[in-house]
Amino acid sequence: MNDCNTGHFVISLDYELHWGFFDHKSVDNYIENLQNVNRVIDRLLKLSDAYNIKLTFSTVGFLFAKNKAELIKYSPIDKPKYTKHKLNPYAIFDEIGDNEIEDPFHYANSTIQKIKKHKNHEIGTHTFSHYYVKESGQTLQDFENDITSAKKIAAANGVLIKSIVFPRNMVNKAYLDICFNNGIASYRGTEKSYVYHIHPSKSKYYHLFLRLLRLPDSYINISGSNTYKLGSLFKKNEIMNLPSSRFLRPYESALKYLEPLKIRRIKKGMKRAAKNNELYHLWWHPHNFGKNIDENFKNLEDIFKEYKRLNNKFQFTSETMSSLANKI
Fold first, then answer.
1. Which 8-state DSSP code applies to residue 71?
2. How many beta carbons lie within 10 A of that of residue 187, not counting itself?
3. Where are the alpha helices (DSSP H) in the chain?
4. Which domains does the chain have, with CATH numbers?
5. What is the pLDDT of residues 202-243, one digit of tens each?
């Protein structure tokens, strides 16, 4: 083990635009959040520079495409055949625009290039097609095809994929070796609590119950601090799990009086990690900040100020997923 005598702070962002929820929400139903994603990312880059924070943008491979022809070019021949047909993103290719100017909700090459220029940050993968590894109908081979496409389109843009965040936090252990064999060294696992585990075979009411438990856990301690000893994360010849500590829930005006509790819960977890040389892993989607932008960034800067304090006092260190995996 190297350089594990300090705590570490990781932020991963699920960068997906409409591909992340096309199956249950239209662009029109989420237009404000989607229209403001580029504005949000510009502010994220500026704020992270001010506090020397490193970010991991786990990016859907589709977003690298400059146009539909390129999107089709990099798509695998054999695509996943989900039992739930509505999960198939390839089925909506005819409905989207031809390029980023026509359709900024399904293409994002210019923003990816902007992120790439910031050497502090990492561009990882959120799979090529926002792939669901626990849904029925798809296979291990389909997943390997997807990861191959993700790597190829990233490489064509000068990006080497070294980390992965699985869409909707569906982690299927059988698929981890495929990632590792394709040069992916780390992934973001879920919190240990059953509240954060996803079981596609369970009913929608079961998952609704879990979501109802996650809401209060954002404000009061239900699932624990979710910090992790770095030594426990490494297993020889295996992809490294850098588990989530907390989802940064976006600002909601209806719950504005609870916002201080939410930020305090995150800061307490960060302090525990800093004092005990552990990992604290925070995550959210850029589109979460697309509404109530100022309020969301006020909360984020409060978290960044706490990071700076912990960095000064305990040498708490900001890392990307890959840079931390390299240290361990």
1. H
2. 25
3. 31-35, 37-51, 68-74, 109-117, 140-155, 176-181, 204-217, 259-275, 293-314, 321-327
4. 8-327 (3.20.20.370)
5. 666 666 777 777 788 888 888 788 999 998 888 888 999 999
